[in-house]
Amino acid sequence: MNFQHWNYKSALFSSTIRALLFLLANLRSGWHAATGAMLAEFTYRAITAGFYGALTQSFRRVQPPWKGTLGALLIVPLITHSIEFTIHYLRGTPNLKTSMIASLCFTLVSTSFNLFAMRRGALVSGRDAWSIADDMRALPALIAGFLGAGPMWLWRCAARKPAR
After folding, report:
1. What is the pTM of this model?
2. 81/86 Cα distance (integer angstroms)
3. Residues in contact with 113: Cβ distance below 8 Å, sequence separation at least 6, in sequence order
4. Domain of 68?
5. Which residues contact 156 (CB under 8 A, 6 or more apart)?
6. Is the pLDDT of residue 4 over 80?
């Protein structure tokens, strides 16, 4: 993976949403503390989320798909949250535990969704990428498909006839 594979879509969405998470998680400590946490998170994610998105994108073609999902859900959070924790610990983010839990939960959901979307051609960057407008138009169907994937898998498992 090199700089060409930096995923600007991940950088844009991740830095914005995570900055808001840190702002909200730290508001009870005052506007100054919340703004500081928000700016630290936005800066960190704006710089690094494109690389993390590229890493997630690289897992989309791993076979079988469950191995790619497992890899993305272990490797990406381990790297991102180790650095994130260190940054916020060193800067003295007041509600660090709440902030980190919110961020980790967001990572698990967003990485799963991004991988789901990337396997269908959306939210990727590079040679075969859709435009960001095409990605936004595809989002409602992708979200519906993502939310329905678990129940559909359970339905297929329950519908299978037992082996004799």
Report:
1. 0.83
2. 8
3. 142, 143, 146
4. 3-159
5. none
6. no
